[in-house]
Amino acid sequence: MYALASAKDPESAVDEARLSGLLGRASTGDADAWREIVRLYARRVYAMAFSRLHNRDVSEEIAQSVLATVAVKVGTGAYTEQGRFEPWLMRVTMNRIRDEARRRGRQATPTDPVALADMREDDGAAAGAGDSNRLGALRAAIETLPDADREVLMMRHHGQMGFKEMAEMLGEPMGTLLARHHRALRKLKDLLAVQEDHGTRGAAPGRVEKAS
Amino acid sequence: MTNSNHRNSFNPAGDDPAALEPELAALDAALDELARRDAASTGPGFEDRIAVAAILVVDAAGVVLEPGHWVPPSALVCVSLFLV
User: Is B77 part of the contact surface with chain A (CB cutoff 8 Å)?
Assistant: First the structure.
């Protein structure tokens, strides 16, 4: 049995046969099957969007749009289940997030605390409101990472993807993604150390240079 | 939604928690915590709204919703109430 949800929440793990059955029922309009598919994937799609776009409404819009795309493809028979549903779903998700990020001009998200605070006010229900200092610093550091590093972290942690799925989705060797994730963690660690150092010296926290 | 504490960068199968050095493992766990918080930040009825939208799309054979167009949550709540 190939665990489609490998390396993720065991409670949400779904094996290929079960997922195939769900998709088959969903394609005929079985409401219970759709609810189950949504239960399995919608929060992961939402979390990935939220980690990048920092806005609840926009993230829910993307989750809805992605699942609507899935529904159209599955419901009209345009998607043929071949055991690659999850990488396909996540590819649709990543494309929608990238499109939205481009549309919103968020490629260069500010890391200055004042600018971030302004952004939160603009967004209304934005990320970070209830974060501890530690998580807030982590969130700010992630924002300074290059897109490729940020995306691998987003897929791994918010998307709960296994490296095998990420490799399938991106068409890259699994070793490359393992190395990229490791490198991204190291960069984050260094960025957080710089932030901490600035904090202990009394400099403005949260302002770190874009990592290379 | 929770992530296994046993996965790490060098072992996607998640059965060897010792493969990452401790500082990176702690960071890995912190990222999981951040992801859990973000996933839990949805408003009430989130999954119901998404499911109803998907069901509507299938029922309408892809006519009701085109990908990229959003149905406001308030409209979906109305539809949900109607369906119930």
Answer: no
